[in-house]
Q: What sequence folds into this?
């Protein structure tokens, strides 16, 4: 794999993760927060993440059924590159809301990070069964097959489905770029 391919894949993964986070944030914007103490969301410095983590841990110690705080905690661990802690926080969130496609996908991304590709794929498949148009879970499934397992043939149905659902989305543009990088066998279908 040359440097350009690695760069494209790295950029695609970062954009995909950010896209999933944004989709999750937008989908939950209208939901009321269950905690009386707010845990701020968003990116920030190491200190910001550390402070949010400490605050969230205090809240869930007192209110272990607080879905939003478990998700926030998982997201901060995700951003801090602490995959096992993120996996555990997302697991707590999934105990409360087992059909949360964004949490399933984020936990799957952390499974992927630690090399548990079968668990990652199981999470992405479950998210996609709940919401067949969940682009991020489709993208991540294709990514595991294509990048991690080097099975471009198994990645193709996921890429095709993304292009069918929303051919103009940012994720679809990433897919087109990745398919182009992988040659003719992965080229997008002609319309």
A:
């Amino acid at each position: 794999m040359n440097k350009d391919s690695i760069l494209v894949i790295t950029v695609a993964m970062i954009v995909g993760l950010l896209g999933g986070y944004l989709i999750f944030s937008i989908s939950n914007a209208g939901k009321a927060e269950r905690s009386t103490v707010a845990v701020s969301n968003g990116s920030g410095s190491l200190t910001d993440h550390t402070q949010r983590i400490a605050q969230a841990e205090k809240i869930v110690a007192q209110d272990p059924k607080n879905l939003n705080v478990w998700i926030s905690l998982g997201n901060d661990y995700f951003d801090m590159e602490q995959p096992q802690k993120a996996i555990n926080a997302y697991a707590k969130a999934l105990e409360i809301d087992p059909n949360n496609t964004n949490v399933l996908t984020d936990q799957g991304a952390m499974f992927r990070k630690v090399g548990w590709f079968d668990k990652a794929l199981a999470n992405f498949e479950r998210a996609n069964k709940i919401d067949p148009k969940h682009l991020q879970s489709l993208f991540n499934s294709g990514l595991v097959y294509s990048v991690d397992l080097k099975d471009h043939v198994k990645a193709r149905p996921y890429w095709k489905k993304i292009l069918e659902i929303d051919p103009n989305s940012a994720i679809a543009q990433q897919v087109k770029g990745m398919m182009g990088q992988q040659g003719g066998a992965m080229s997008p279908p002609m319309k």
